[in-house]
Amino acid sequence: MVKAGKTRNRAAAVTMFLLLSGTFAAAPAAIIGHMTPPPPLSDARIATLPPPLQAPWQAYLARSRALAAADKATLAAERKDGALPADPPETHHSASAMPLKRPAAWYASPEARHVADVIVSFQTPAGGWGKNMARNGPLRQRGQNWVATGDSYVGTIDNDATTTELRFLARVQAQVPGADGQAYRAAFQKGIRYLLDAQYPNGGFPQVYPLAGGYHDAITFNDDALLDVAQVLDAVARRDQDYGFVPPALAAQAKDASARVLLLILSTQVVVRGVRTAWGQQVDMLTLAPVGARNFEPVSLASAESAALLEFLMMQPVPSPEVVAAVHAGAGWLRRTALRDIDWTDAASDASPEAGRRRVDRPGAGPIWSRYYEIDDANASTRPIFGDRDRSIHDDVNELSAERRNGYAWYGTRPLDALAAYADWSRRHPLPAATVPH
Asked: Which residues are identified as catalytic?
């Protein structure tokens, strides 16, 4: 599987829009609702499931609690002598310290070995890693928090965390055979078992594991979190290149987990008016319905995440009829939701720089997509929506507070890549005439 988002020839995709107006009738701006925070996984929620389904979820929740307790107990034991080092520094560009595209020989260098040693030192007892951490700094000290944010995000797949550490360890161990590389191989295998532990019974993954509650318990498509996990599991399952050292039994488990991710993706495509459309940015772990996340991230269909999921599905070497139907339906939704004759400005190009970013009318501009679209039957889920810090949901991005309007990617062109790929893929995988996506 190849990570979604690879740049392709956008010109091919643009031609697909020549017959589409992409223009929606203007209407007065309004607050159209308020975002409701999603519920966490709990004993009470599990008890509402049919009895045959409860046992796997109860076991999952118990395992999560046990691992969380072990993480805390290990830290407490390290601090019995009074050691309380400062939290490690936080960085928002942690992946840059773990480059994955250097020449193979570089991964045997002292510089790469040091990064790998830092990664090993910050692996939590549960087996994962925190996010936004500089892996080229000092090794973790005894008693030091596992992450820069204290006891938050102790293990996560958010912001490329855990999956990047695993990929880097795999690259280094391949250049450090024998006993010298054993610590890297052991940490890698522990990290894969962490991902297997984190996988929900239905194939999804929470954003944070052990579970942290709130929206962190939701299955997360945002920023390709789930897709990154699927790629790592697929590479482990194949045992090729850097992953040939993985024991066959662990590779078999990864293969099963990867197959369950694919089924989960197909199960979470939202149906509107009896037709498959796209995907939410995150979905409830039990109902698989789209849910919100942060206060300004409402329940919706998400264009960028849906484009990434479509690219993932199109990378399947032998797509099933279900995959073919899902791709055709998802691409159709992207075409219907393309916006024309508008632009998303920055402060430098705005007539009122102090106002910051704004949506403006610009004849001939586009196509462009709103990040979020309302899920409803009235207009076939094609109305853009926008969230603010106070959980209000708007139908006009210009009505948001300046802080949120300027601080979030409300529009983008990510679907162009998916539609460019679809133009070729659809010729090789036509939808049978008798097939109606549902």
From this structure: 159, 294
